[in-house]
Protein: Trehalase
Amino acid sequence: MTDTEANIYADSQTYYSTGGNSFNQLNVNRVRSFVMSKSIQGKAGHIRKRRASHDEMTKPRKFLIDVEETKRLILEQEDTNGDFQITIDDMGPKSLSVGTADSGGHRKFEIRGTYMLSNLLQELALAEDHGRKHIVLDEARLNENPVDRLSRMIQHNFWDGLTRRIDADGLEIICADPKNRTADHSPRIYIPFGEDEQLQYYNNVAETRPHLNLEVETLPKEITPEYVKSINDRPGILALAMQKHADNQGNVTLKGVPFIVPGGRFNEMYGWDSYFETLGLAVDGRIEMAKGMVDNFVYEITHYGKILNANRSYYLTRSQPPFLTDMAIKVYERLTDETEEKKTWLASAIRAAIKEYHTVWMSLPRYDPITGLSRFYPTGLGIPPENEASHFDHVILPYAKNLGLSIKEYVSKYQSQEIHEPNLDEYFLHDRAVRESGHDTTYRFEKRCAHLATIDLNSLLYKYELDIGQVIRTIYDDRFELDDGIVETSAAWFDRATLRQERIDKYLWNEEKSLYYDYDTVKREQSVYESVTALWALWAGCASSEQAEKLVKISLPKFEVLGGLVSGTEDSRGTIALDRPNRQWDYPFGWAPHQIMAWRGLENYGYMTEARRLAYRWLYTITKSFVDYNGVVPEKYDVVTLNHLLKVEYGNVGVDFKFVPREGFGWMNASYQVGLSYLTHHMRRALGACTSPEVFFNRSRMNKEIVIEDVTKIITTVESEDSQKQEEIETMVVEVISSTTFQGLSNEIESKIEPIANDSVIQSKAAIDNIKSIG
Structure:
């Protein structure tokens, strides 16, 4: 690439400041002579007919674009529903004429179709971000393979858009809380007890940056449910880890350790979201950011006693599904630091995980001493404050009517404890537990969550026990010292894992139905709700090979639909009506964490065919919406109808943007990057062409039969006297066919046969060519 050329697929900052778009390369005189109002058709009095989306292309094209004028015209002509996006729902002609760069804008070319036009709109917005009024735009950037484009946007744009840090420079962004429904919206930060250096830092920020109106408060040494309830009318952000930093003048100050937020109204660091985001960051090589996520979790356990639901004051009594051990190990494996430095870093994470294990998950009230299993059972008092004001009206109304009070009056008296209502106390206990589970909300947990020993939580804790034991044995020579001087060995942790596995089998596994279920520790019976989190046992490794086989062959089909895995079965959800609306963690909705956990679990037990198939389904759902809806990457999908425009509680985060998506959604971004690693080259090509799973897998089944037939021809051509070679080839072909998903099968067949076969052995050239063409 020459100095005047730019990488066509570079990030927007690079693309719009180098090559043909650098200020010293762009021919300003040529641009000025280029009159957009005459060169672009489709103005008043001329309605352009809708046309097909593709022209024959003889060579790569570049367009000379007046950014502001083209943006005005494309919105005027194509954005018929006025949402500042170009989607398949818009009824414009889907065709816009632009000038080519090599003609100085005088020769015209039609940009056609929803995908290219929406990409044009996005590129115009990105060019404006970098102050460009005129640009030279490569056509290849508009018709880029959507898989490549989305993956590139996640890696170079979305992660940056979701990055936050808590310090002087980041406070203004992070303090904003769309969930705050109190009258007090003052920016406020709570500092842990004993963090005097941070307290001094933030007091200085409040003094030197008065425009922030920052209020700085210190938490007490012991954080009780009563205290947390007392500050619900003064919500604020909770401080996270900081590190010393020298500025340009050599002055040492503190700087926040960065982290990723989910996006939209979720403008803080969330518990289990962060694990999946870390997996995506690792795929994209952002190891320092991933390391910072772990460091912030260690800080939370150290100062707040747990990994928080999220770092807002109203979450102080609530945790979320625990993933710290696997998260830390994944980062550790990718660190390039010196070995001892890496080991020291990992040790801090493992010590924090051990503390969390004992003080949170293996202590009352979360620990159930009868079953020996754990539950989502947060402490806390009153009504969860982060919801819309009317969210619980339907629950409170009967109690208010009974006392002749309005809902507002009743809530005030209940919150101040003038009214005591045990039934409401239990309702809100379960509601908080649902939120701690991360699955808010679902009929699986309604009015009983705190009583359930769930398969997901206990699978995660089994993984903690196994991870801690393996780390102690393999990295620390089976001797790991805690902060209080106690020395841990691997044996105790492996014993804990074995015991939990036995209890999971006893209470959660249902042999008759070949599925894991939650166990009600109060009613002493299994739940009947069929949840896809049963597959988490495969991720954790606590299922036997026999249980895994039954899960895959008997239970997996219950959850597999067109667009991936549903959260639960339709039968388990029950009938939907006006007084019993859809819940977002039930059928027909699919979520990124469920997909990733299933892929990894299936991979653990050797079911790569199923893992790849499910990954394709999910990535197709994301890619199709990305292509059809202006690059959207939302929080969740209806995976039955492949719809992201959902009528369900809380709506769908990530869909409300103008011109160009800036963030995607945290774990959705991660699922895309992780999911691509499961696809073969053939699958990725089909995904880029937006080939429906129904079409793709039906065609693959037909092609697999052809491959098997042709492989049989190859085997029969082996020289009869060379029986040993024939047996070797037969064995390898059977192995490939039985253990490999068809996509990419031909390459594997060829690579396995080639080392032991020669021209005299393989005589059916047509057969091997057929295999190549299919693969």
